[in-house]
TrEMBL record:
It is found in: Cell membrane; Membrane. Belongs to the ABC-2 integral membrane protein family. Its main location: membrane. The keyword Transmembrane helix applies. It is a multi-pass membrane protein. This is Transport permease protein. GO terms for biological process: response to antibiotic. One of its GO terms (molecular function) is ABC-type transporter activity. It comes from Micromonospora sagamiensis. The chain crosses the membrane at residues 27-49, 61-82, 103-130, 136-158, 226-248.
Length: 253
């Protein structure tokens, strides 16, 4: 790895962030879908859903935050795909820069853009009545989980960004990720689901992550959920990072 990796990444990150600031609508679009879902479930469907809590928006928000991230990483794959097709990667390879800095710039751009979208969603949730007595450490723990989840899904997005044959193929992979929270504890308790669906919901990664965030917000003991959530995030991150870097080296080698 080049000794100038950090400097190269910073320069390329500035380039990517410039593109994002010139198309703020991407961040707005990323936030609109989860906000619309939150409005729909709280004000239309919430009265018919029994979660055993006084405030459905409090119950719902952790899952909405994960949907926000799943929506946002589609743009990473999209931007990476456009860079691959434009030939800019070949131009970068002719310059004395660290190869991996090109991908890291896209990943960090995704992290920044998604954090902005998450803040927007939380602000709307506060307007809708979300309240939490969580302390600073609990909020930092929530932020840490969301950052890990964002990095894991972003490196996953890098793979179709590098390998897709079309724009739709690059960004379309995110749709199953957006709907995965619906088969989890994000919207309703898993014990209300029929047997096979309940089994899937209880052992897929979103449920552990949602439960850990919800417990942190409500100042409940997190138990094993937080460790399971961290294990899922780190496991997905390691596998997708290694896979993405291997694909990238083959593409530019």
């Amino acid at each position: 790895m080049s000794k100038h990796f950090l400097g190269d990444t910073a320069v390329l990150l500035g380039r990517s962030l410039t593109h994002v600031t010139r198309s703020v609508d991407t961040i707005i679009t990323t936030a609109i879908t989860p906000i619309a879902m939150m409005l729909l479930f709280v004000y239309v469907l919430g009265g018919a859903i029994n979660t055993g809590t006084d405030s459905y928006v409090n119950y719902l928000l952790p899952g909405i935050l994960l949907i926000t991230i799943a929506s946002g990483i589609a743009y990473t794959a999209f931007r990476l795909f456009l860079d691959m097709k434009s030939g800019i990667f070949e131009r970068f390879q002719s310059m004395p820069i660290a190869r991996s800095s090109v991908l890291w710039a896209h990943v960090l751009t995704s992290l920044v853009a998604n954090l902005i979208s998450l803040v927007v969603v939380v602000v709307v949730a506060l307007i809708m009545g979300f309240r939490s007595g969580a302390g600073v450490l609990a909020w930092l723990a929530v932020a840490g989980i969301l950052i890990l989840f964002t990095l894991a899904l972003t490196w996953l997005a890098v793979i179709p960004g590098l390998t897709a044959k079309s724009v739709d193929g690059a960004s379309g992979f995110s749709y199953p990720l957006i709907f995965l929270p619906f088969i989890s504890s994000a919207f309703v308790p898993t014990d209300t689901m029929p047997g096979p669906v309940r089994a899937f919901a209880e052992y897929q990664p979103v449920t552990a992550i949602v439960n850990a965030i919800r417990d942190l917000f409500t100042q409940q003991p997190v138990g094993t959920d937080i460790w399971i959530a961290l294990a899922w995030c780190l496991g997905i991150l390691v596998v997708t990072y290694v896979s993405a870097m291997a694909i990238y080296r083959r593409k530019v080698g």
